[in-house]
Amino acid sequence: MLTLVVRTLRYRTGGFIATLVSVFVGTAVMLACGGLMETGIRTVIPPQRLAAAPIVVAGNQSYDLPTVGHGEDADHETATLSERVRLGEGLASTISGVPGVAHVVPDVSFHAEVLGDQGGPSVPGTQAGHSWVSAELAPYRLTEGAAPIREGEVVLDSATAARIGAHAGGKADIAVRGGVHSYRITGIADAGRRMATDAVFFSPAEAGGLRSAAGQVDAFGVQLAPGADVAAVSAQIATAVRDQRAVTLTGDARGSAEFARAAGDGELLIILAAVFGGLAAQVAMFVVASTLTLSVQQRRREVAMLRAIGATPRQLSRMITGEAMIIGALGTALAILPGVLLGDWLFGRLTGFGVIQPVLKFEQGFYPVVAAAVVGLGSAWGAAFVAARYAGRTRPVEAMRETAIPTRWLTPTRLWLGVSSLIGAAALAYLTITVVDGPLAASTAGPAVTLVATAVALFAPGLTKLLVAVLRRPIRAFGGLPGYLASLNARARWMPMAGAVTPIMLATGLAIFMLYFQTTQVAVAEKQYSDSLLADAVVTSATGDLPPDLVAKVQQAPGVAGASAFVTSKGYNEKPSDATQDEDGVDLTGVTAEGVAKAWGSIVASGQLDALHGNTIALPADLAQRLGVGVGAKIAMRLGDGSPITLDVVATLRTTAASASALMPADTLAPHTAAGAADRILVMAQPGTAEGDLLTSLRSRVGDLDGVQVAGREALTKAFLAEVQANAWVNYLIVGLLLVYAAISMVNTLVMATADRRREFGLQRLIGSTRGQVMRMMAMEAGVVAAIGVFLGTLVAASMLIPFSAAVSDSLFPSGPLWIYLVILGLAVVLTVVATCAPTWFTLRTRPSPSTLAPE
Predict the structure, then answer these.
(1) Is the pLDDT of residue 74 over 80?
(2) Total structural domains in the chain?
(3) Looking at residue 118, what is its pLDDT?
(4) Same structural domain for residues 207 and 277?
(5) Range of weakest confidence among 181-195, 219-233, 530-544
(6) Is the peptide bond before 358 cis (omega within 30 degrees of 0)?
(7) Where are the transmembrane segments (predicted)?
(8) Are residues 265 and 255 part of one domain?
(9) How far apart are alpha carbons 549 and 700 in whole angstroms?
(10) Is pLDDT above 60 for 399?
(11) If 0-12 CB within 10 Å is exposed, 13-18 middle and 19+ buried, where does residue 111 land?
(12) Is the peptide bond before 396 cis (omega within 30 degrees of 0)?
């Protein structure tokens, strides 16, 4: 049987190559998604500034949520705290007392931006300040100059110094806590490798005053005595600090102490890889199945002859599945290296967009290869199994009859699968619209669309026959003789035409849905944010924090109705507990009571915002209802840095999905954040005050402060949209890969379908048709195929876009520019015409007589 399989492949190069390409591309995409998932699961963060410390002691960023339920029904969840958990300086003496410890080095990071020639950061957001004491943990070594020992002295790392052209003995303007100051550069240090964050080193005394939390450090680097065993000492340190909310880290785990928020990126990678990997698997199975099924259908005469001379259905099944498995194995093997490269490239794009921190190490080992191979080989085997059952169950006489005019298509199995796909799509659509929101919406909406596409593909022959009947008269009326011939062909060949329509439907349906789904999400998010934004201007600072008395100064500016410091963080309800609380916790916003009380009175459901002083909180009304508390009640929370706090409820708020945040006093919340202070002030204008007048008034009031900037309402919206668009570009990128895959399948199928008609073209040539007439006829047919495919693809996309748009906005139509749809239509038509006319032209290059003898 193996010999027969190999021989049949030799004479079926067109179908062989088409199926091979489908398996190859699908496996490569799956392998790339598998690499992203493995990277997220492992979340390997190699240390950089702490690399020279064998052991690192840091705050425990893990938090066990309150248990929900009892006994076997109890639900235990763990969350990652959003803010850095710091440790007390006194813990250093405890660690130093462990046998085998040589000395302990505290590490502290704080905001510090070296300003360039134009007064802005040399590279915004990439620099941090540290004490020179911690330089040995990288280690950083001086390449010129000396260490900073006095206030007003700094050492720059070599990357920063090269960017601004600095040398030892020069000056640099640095934005640090309290304003912008000029520092003398005493030296330049180099770590010997590229670092994710550039470093500015201050004298130990000055660094102690600049850190956000007095008496606390970010981590301790532990240097060992000669001959000490890392594992043994680490275990003893863990025992010594177990009651201090601290963890002891070695190896690559040390990186999590340096990049505390990078651990959450691993979870995001898992979600992205799962969503798009699942969608890619669906598309791969769909594409391989359609390609292989078309290849088997084109061998109707061969299958009929084999049945007529005695071949059993089992033998045919073994032959077809054997061919598919050989192609699948070859395509999978060829896809391994490109899949690895594609995964690394995707990871690079994710870090480039700023969605994932570049400190994560890309991992793509054995398991993604196995998973991708299972999908590739499974798709090939499943498609071959279905095609072989169709070919093998037909009796020889019926098979010979069907080679002439294939008309039977709606089998009970096809009907059952089609209806089941529509039911599954309806269920997922309901979840998307009523339950799932945010980035996870794609996890249900994408599969829903592919299920609708599957149903349409199963019913494609009947739909194609119906639409051909509808288009027949317009084709004849406007197409001339080529249109007349094309309409006759379409009427006679509606069954094979359905095979060409299906990949066009899939490609256009996915493209329209995915792109407009994303543009709609962005537009809805922008509208919700704009509607919930109560500020008319914003005051920010290059130093990362603002002077405490600046809020009062802004409040006194003409035209200002209210001014409030603004701090964001997260917290977790502990008592009363919230059964619906997940690892995302509660959004917390720190504000100034006097400012919000004057301008945000409209959002108060009960209580008073001017009571937000000390340990108090204003809860969204729905959260207060879930907790069963009201104004005057007390609740226990865990803040973002792990600190427990008891708060008095002073108000409840009317909120929307976009602004469901609890309010706390800014001076209470800020010390428990990474920055340790408010980084902006929101300003509300008095009624009738124009935005331009408000901005002029604010600039005249705070313009003499270094680093302080004033911007209008659009600056807040722009910053919000920048974050939303970063996530959107990730979706565009991965969806683009799937669309390229679907387009390849479309071209594959069209080339196969056209090349199979060389006998028909030869007969046309023999009865007098010229090459030009045949080419024009095929161009008209390609137009018909494209029109039907685009129409069905539009229906597939609309099946989810319309209900989704109606659920999240006030319109039945998705948001987004019309040119996206027109470009998709244009690309579909161009690809269809080229993929049809190119093989037709190559086929017509041969003489007519040999063409008529070509096997089908």
Answers:
(1) no
(2) 4
(3) 45
(4) no
(5) 530-544
(6) no
(7) 16-37, 268-296, 324-346, 366-391, 415-436, 448-471, 492-517, 729-755, 784-806, 818-842
(8) no
(9) 16
(10) no
(11) buried
(12) no
